[in-house]
């Protein structure tokens, strides 16, 4: 067994004003790690199969974003928003006294990375994005209808949280099936356990069943409006070494003009690299070998000795 396959991690908790951010710190803890950000409704377990295949001398801190995994939920009455996750990363940087950060993001986590690198280009040392780059948005003429729906369901979920009653529980195999279906069959059933480990808890009423622990409010996110030109202006500010990997069997990025136009903006950065791999949206979890070599090569090319912690 190789050294990378033997790689171990340590659980961490990072203080934030509303509680804590939980994470899994893989590898060395004497230097600043790569910060790994998962996708919507996933958690740090999303990187369990990929990280052991990456260079073992590079530390990686995979976190649970607020409301996900073992991290604290935001206060009652508050809505989740992509830019709030950018703020969370800044708070983590402040807690560890980092002047810069390197990001490995999947899906929503990748979007957060691109937003961070465009808003704070001097603070992002390198960026690796997996299969998403742009915040979810809707056409302006549909915005009021969509937000009507989201806010209505958010208020119901928020009331349920305050009620503090135990959510519905299911046998473990049914939890796997619910995750598999809920993720659009993107996560292989035999890989669902990596997400469920930080996403379910044994029922106090039915000891042979489990309930989902993520904050249900994250399903009703404030999506905002991100016009093409506005987001292009964010992307063109990115100057750090950037790697974007697109999963060809994923529905997340449609073959449409906006993607090509944004890709053209990103390619203006001379340190931007673009790769495509066969696989679904969670290819990094299902078949990590398809992306690990690409990512490792990029990391070894651009990673420099980091400041001591």
Automatic annotation (TrEMBL):
PANTHER family recorded: MONOACYLGLYCEROL LIPASE, SERINE HYDROLASE-LIKE PROTEIN DDB_G0286239
Name listed for the protein in its UniProt record: AB hydrolase-1 domain-containing protein
One GO cellular component, as annotated: membrane
Family in the record: Belongs to the AB hydrolase superfamily.
Molecular function via GO: hydrolase activity
Pfam families (UniProt xref): Abhydrolase_1
Top-level division of the source organism's lineage: Eukaryota
Keywords of the record: Hydrolase
SUPFAM superfamilies xref list: alpha/beta-Hydrolases
InterPro entries reported for this sequence: AB_hydrolase_1, AB_hydrolase_fold, AB_hydrolase_sf
AB hydrolase-1 domain segment(s): 33-132
